[in-house]
Amino acid sequence: MNIKIGGVFLALLILVVSAVPVMAQSTPFLINGWVTDSNQNPVNNPSIVITNTNTGEDLVIKTDPDSNYYHALSTSYNVSAGDILNFSVNGDDAPDHTVSEAEISKGGFELNLTVEQTTGLCGDVTGNGVVDTGDVILLSNFVGYYPGMPQYALNSTQQLAGDVTGNGVIDTGDVILLSNFVGYSGYTLNCTY
Ligand SMILES: [Ca+2]
Fold it and tell me: What's the rounded Cα separation, in Å, for the pair 117 and 4?
């Protein structure tokens, strides 16, 4: 009799002990989305910081140089319903996001982010504050000689500054106008901003 009770007690004890890790187990929590500028153009390799303001923890963000996709994989242990997540994209604050109960059960949420398009001086493709032959050379390399090469890549601000004809594309027309503008008087640059 005593042995039987002891056996039942032991079985219950094992059940309780083995149930504990199951109850404390965390589930994956994925935050992901795509980053574009205000013109809906993809912003590749974005720099994103997500801070859980309730815990002070910065989430680990994964991005790719050739993509505007980002994701952060956390767990339900680190992110709880009601937590306020602060987003920053390329150094600018984005709206906060409050984690909902539904997002916890679903295992995450998708949030697309927008980078405000910054504009510089029209024609200043190099971004050094002046329009000179350096800009003509860089734009010329970007358009004609070395398309797609990383050292002649232009970010979205530089591309806006390089579309000096203001027709929405960067082509030899821009190189010619910029070259004329730098070399001769009487030419006007017509960026879209
Ligand atoms: Ca320049």
Answer: 75
